[in-house]
Amino acid sequence: MTLIAPDDAPTVAETPTRVADLVGPARGQTVLDDDAKREIRRAVLTAVAVPGYQVPFGSREMPVARGWGSGGLQITLALAGADDCVKVIDQGDDEGVNAVNLRRLVMGATGATETSEPEEATLIQTRHRIPEDELGDGQVLILQVPVPEPLRGVERDMRELARMHAEADYSKMWVSLYEDKVRNGVITQTTGYPCLVGGRYVVATTPIPRWDIPRLHHAPFLSLFGAGREKRIYAIPPDTDVVPMTFDDVPFEVERTDGAACERCGTTESYLVAIPGASGDRWVCSDTSWCRRQRVDATPRTDEHVEPNGHDDQNGHDDQNGVAR
Q1: Residue 260 in this model has a pLDDT that exceeds 50
Q2: 291 is catalytic
């Protein structure tokens, strides 16, 4: 019996191309349907209208495990469009494995463009950090949240938690902070420090360090928090009061290590992380994009023209002491 191939069967020359298409990046993939996007957008609007309130939503299954950024990813996919520019970072790093994979997924699903520069981004999805750069009006910061409930450490019953938030009864949290201070001499909670938003709701600021919390107070940008596993969305709108829970005689303090400076750019004015080594800890900037720009800005220019009076007539700098006028 003779087998005759159909007219539209791929030729030998065409087969590798089609296989390459199969293993290559997906184009126009749909991760969230329109109904899911509409539901998430409605939840976001409610969260913006009631700052700090945890809005429930129907969290969908994502190509990432819940607890690994599925909540923030769903918000980004629901809001991003082809005219948006998206930056994705993981603990301050643009090139981390998690950041690269999430960014690739967002680009393929939304058609948005990608960037590593915060000032170019309209949407910034992040885990555990707020970029060191000053974000502006019109930008949206989307934070991945593993545990959205700030009172989980002092109360386990869900009905009691709902009552405490409804009545603004945060006495157990105050007692917990007081006991921490008495036992350790300082309040030891670092990441996810509880804050009062808009004078009403206490929120978990996710695992961002205390270093980043003052930047949420009266920030010009919109902050959205998504917890996929817990199915919650909450928000801090622009120009909103964000006050860390602390006592009058115990001022709020951010992390700082005396004498530590980034070994790459030399700064002491960013959030630094320690890299253990045989000769001791090495300190580097957590925000790799910000650190890279600091090194570029510090590189001496070779085309500067210095006037005989000792001043740079173009850049407004004194070439003798490097101080900006």
Answers
A1: yes
A2: yes
